[in-house]
Amino acid sequence: MALISTLLALRKDPRILKLPPYLSALCILVGVAWLLVLPLNEYSRNTYVSENALLPGQVHTYFTGSEHNVFRAYRHEVASLVDMPLEERNQKLVHILRSNKLKAATQSYSYAASGRNISNQNVYAVLQGPRADATEAIVLVASWLTIDGEVNHSGVALLLTLSRYFKRWSLWSKDIIFLISGDSTSGPQAWVDAYHDSHSPDTIESLSIKSGALQGAVAIEYPAGPWGHRFEKLHIIYDGINGQLPNLDLFNTAVSIASGQMGAGCTLQRMWKHDDNYKERLQTMLRGMISQGLGHATGPHSAFIPYHVDAITLQTVGDGWHDEMTLGRTVESLFRSLNNLLEHLHQSFFFYLLLQANRFVSIGTYLPSAMLIAVSFSITSIALWVLSGRPTSIPSPATTAPLKDSKGPTEKETNKTAVTVVEKDKDKSLLPLAALEVTERSLFLPVAFITLSHFLGLFPLYIFNNTTEAFLAPAFYSTAILTATLPFAAAFTLRRFARPTPQESTLIQCFSLLFLGMFLSALATVNFSLSFLVGIFASPLTFVRGLHAASSPSTPVPFTTKNRLALSAVMSVVLAALNPVVVIRAATLYWGRDIVQVLVQAAEGWHVWGLWTQVVVWLVWWPAWFAGSVVVAGGLFS
Amino acid sequence: MLSFLPLLLLNALIPLGSANADYHERLLLRPLPQSAVLASFNFRSNETSTAFEEQNFRYFPRSLGQILQHARTKELHLRFSLGRWDAESWGERPWNGAREGGTGVELWAWIEGQSEEEAFSRWLTLTNALSGLFCASLNFIDATKTIRPVMSFQPEGNHANSSNLHLLHGTLPHEVVCTENLTPFVKLLPCKGKAGISSLLDGHKLFDASWQTMSIDVRPVCAAGGKDCILEMEQTVDMVLDIERSKRPRDNPIPRPLPIEEIACDESKPYNAADSCYPLEDSDGHQAAWNLTEIFGKPLKGACPLTAEEGENAHTVCVNSPPERTIQVNTTGPYLEANLAGDTVRCYKLPTGADFDLVFPSQQMTTGLVLATPPLFAARSINGHGQERGSVQAVIRNPSTSQAVEFVYLESLPWFMKPYLHTLRAHVSSSTENPIKETYYRPAVDRKRGTHLELRMLIPASSTLTLTYDFEKAILRYTEYPPDANRGFDVAPAIIRLITPPSSDGKGTYLRTTSLLLPLPTPDFSMPYNVIILTSTVMALGFGNIFNLLVRRFVGADEVQGTGGLKGMLVAKVARIRGMFGGS
């Protein structure tokens, strides 16, 4: 009981409101530190194959010998198709697939994004598994153009050779679908949408041949031309759209087959050289997080993952001694493993961060990091809510120390606290009157402001997704200028109506942070990286405050009030630098990307892939930033 | 003692029964495009009804006959199927689809019973008995998997003599048909795979086929006026063999890449060289070489002595191919060759007691294969994704340019797949008229019975009918999941029966779609176990503490008498030592 009453007494203590900023700072520090220790051996694990049925690398592969001669011939064929018109080229591919006794068809699609028309054609063929009953299928994809826009010569040729080779086997218990997509991201998307009948039939052709439920997909990229090129390593790309990941078992199987059975090293996240030291593990992890956070389609496999079809892309990199047969045998072994599956891949992790080809961190270990950052917003938000319900200045009855400057009793005499006697259960107590005052929170303006700022976020969302390519750059820079000046304009305008009052500005910040904190903690369970990145960039919003002129000039003026303008200016500059638009521009400059290309891709993502990153940016991050900036800018004009 | 009696009777009644009791078998081989061959085995054993009633079995297998009698089953149809019929390349189905089933096991029967309950209990008897006979999980056909079709099935036999017949139908789409089902199937034959065409049936080749179906049909056939009834049992095995795959010897089944010298390269390609070879495609009329022993893995061991000696029925192996196809006969015994049904069907009377082989050499044909177009094409798939809802889409195409087709579409869905009937849409590409003429719908009851939906529809000439409906996925109790819960649940194929044009043989024209895989929301099964472990731990801790408090009496050290000081310690020590020696 004693403890509870002590706590209750502490509740009204003004010192308790001093605590949250430190607590928030601690959360952020621990959150970041948590992430930094993940690459250490103590916090990460070696990967392992969970699903017993996969048996990676346990079968002998027979894709050698005369298949190599056939492969070379097909590679010449593919090379001769490069300059042909689309229809003619695809008819030729269909012809080859049909002569391998498969059912083949084409699918035309067209998308419109940023005023561009993305139209192309997919070629696909179904190998009806001799032991299959049309209920399950696995997909082998080779897009005509690779992610980097080169012609996927050897990849397509390998797909054709494998289609001929796989047809001879009796052991397939699942159908195998061979897909040559027109491009590396939209083509597979159109195909997989049509496969699940969630496409718009006006622009995307329905599939004439279908099979059963897709169990897995493997994409190959090997752009070596008709004279071949030996590669050193396989680069495994695994990020799906919106940061969804394939089951770790699929990735592990690929690594285990490629490195264990074929002797070809595996690499990920464009870490061509990986010495497995702390720095490189951390770098791999951060690259993975950025890729996951952006949520864009990283390869032909990305489109499959939202449909709960586990998929990866195998890309050949470097100069080495492995040739197309190594890749072909890797794919053969991988398909034999997938063919063994009795159930959909479910045993292993769907949420992980990879540090290296065979080291990972699971969600249970890394999740607290993003959660702590999200919690820092919630803590501040609660503190601000409590603060907004306080009378502007409560003299603390607990304070016995003399006030600053120690002017002695004279000061104390003059500022005598008004007190009253409260009687309860025959006990009497003296309480300051101010503590008994009920402070009403005026919620209308804060709620309206928060709603409006989120509504404002819809404008950039709409503009960037629906502007043609030529106008994207002007649109971006005008948005940058507008968003940079808007907080000051808003604060200035509000100030003319003598709003917001200190309480209102506290509440605005409280609601904004509450929403941000709640959203980020929910997002962390789905897309950890995006939540973490937004959390880091928004973290200063926890510490900035709207500074107002002191209401009662007689009290000792605190430091913050005295240097109100200077502090507000500093905070405004910090926030201006963390404007989402500025952050995006800085990031593109850092990675040497063209901003228009980034925006074009984002718009394509919105219209084609179903990308949600811009919703998070414009409807969560930007409104939070805007609300914080207006509150801070209020300090300049009060 | 009962088993003795029929045996004695059998000997006495042979002359009486033999007037109608007989046995026929026939193997029909039909080459299909893409170097495939369809082999249709047909075995027919007849027994007169009177002999059957008296348990006097000659050609009819006793094991099955007694089951039918016990379960009062008047007509039985049992199917074991694997794979899918590729109508696009292979054309019309054998027997117009009347002798095939959906993937897995399918069973339907007309059972005598005074009431529905009685018929259903006999149905359970039948499924359990057949389950034992055929080593199949037929006993899993329970109330949730049984339906009573209204329009889709018509009895094939004459049932004038029986009344109160109930049609029951059940499917097991997940059942994997394999050798253990073939062995009892072959055992039902009089020659039991030792002679006759059944000696070709080999599990390795049968289950390596691209498509195969085994069927058993029992029906009473009566002369006009319901007199002179016989019970006819027809057993068929249809399979489509991929010649190239079947020819591979059993001791070397791996399709290793051929040595480059054995591959025909297209030398007209500019890049053709020692290291590049564009494989030459088979020209259109090219027929690969094969023979019976190669593709069935064992030789045909002469005729079954029970088949007729003369007449059409004596010719038990037939080949349906263009007349120009060369066929060589390889046997040491005497055989006869005859043309039945024009010159496209060549039939052979097998020698008795000598191996018989047909050799088809590699040949360049001038005439292509003529395949009859099937009356309808049907495909069905599950659309949408996610754990909550989905939709089923069935696309049915009528290739005929002149004739409209009327058909019945039957869906038997498991109870955990709950269709929304208001979302049922049927749309014909060529007209706006609603193609659904009649609907029979019996909704599912959770854990009691599945959905039964029958639609009579009309599809105009050269048009496509698209049927869609949405469904909701139920959440099962965690004990209701099978061990491979994450695989998904199989949904039985839809059955389509054609009403017009009517079939010529009275058996009906059927086609079936492939089965579907329905992914249901599946819990992470490690979670319940974690919960169990955690709760057990918490309970153990809580229980342990409370139990301790209840059964132990806690007493202060000073409250215990005689334990104070040195004396007390000594007394306690002595007591312990005495206790150790069992002293009281």
Q: How would you describe what is shown here?
A:
The complex is a heterodimer of chains A (638) and B (584). In chain A, helix 5 links the parallel strand 4 (136-141) and strand 5. Residues 397-414 of chain A have low confidence and may be disordered. Chain A is built from 21 helices and 13 strands. Chain A is elongated, with a radius of gyration of 31 Å. In chain A, helix 8 packs across helix 16 (528-538) and helix 13 (444-466) packs across helix 15. An eight-stranded mixed sheet of chain A has the order 2-3-5-4-6-9-7-8, sandwiched between helices. By secondary structure, chain A is of the alpha/beta class. The two termini of chain A are 46 Å apart. Chain A has two domains: 52-357, Zn peptidases (Aminopeptidase, 3-Layer(aba) Sandwich); 369-391 and 444-636, no CATH class. In chain B, a hairpin with a 4-residue loop joins strand 13 and strand 14 (345-349). Chain B folds into four domains: 44-237, no CATH class; 258-372, no CATH class; 377-518, Immunoglobulin-like (Sandwich), CATH 2.60.40.740; 530-580. The N and C termini of chain B lie far apart (70 Å). Chain B contains eleven helices and 27 strands. Chain B has 584 residues and is an alpha+beta fold. Chain B is globular, with a radius of gyration of 33 Å. An eleven-stranded mixed sheet of chain B has the order 5-6-4-3-7-8-2-1-11-14-13. A five-stranded antiparallel sheet of chain B has the order 21-22-19-25-26, with no helix packed on it. Chains A and B meet through helix 3 of A and strand 17 of B. Chain B: One of its GO terms (biological process) is attachment of GPI anchor to protein. Chain B: Keywords: Membrane, Signal, Transmembrane, Transmembrane helix. Chain B: Residues 1-19 form the signal peptide.
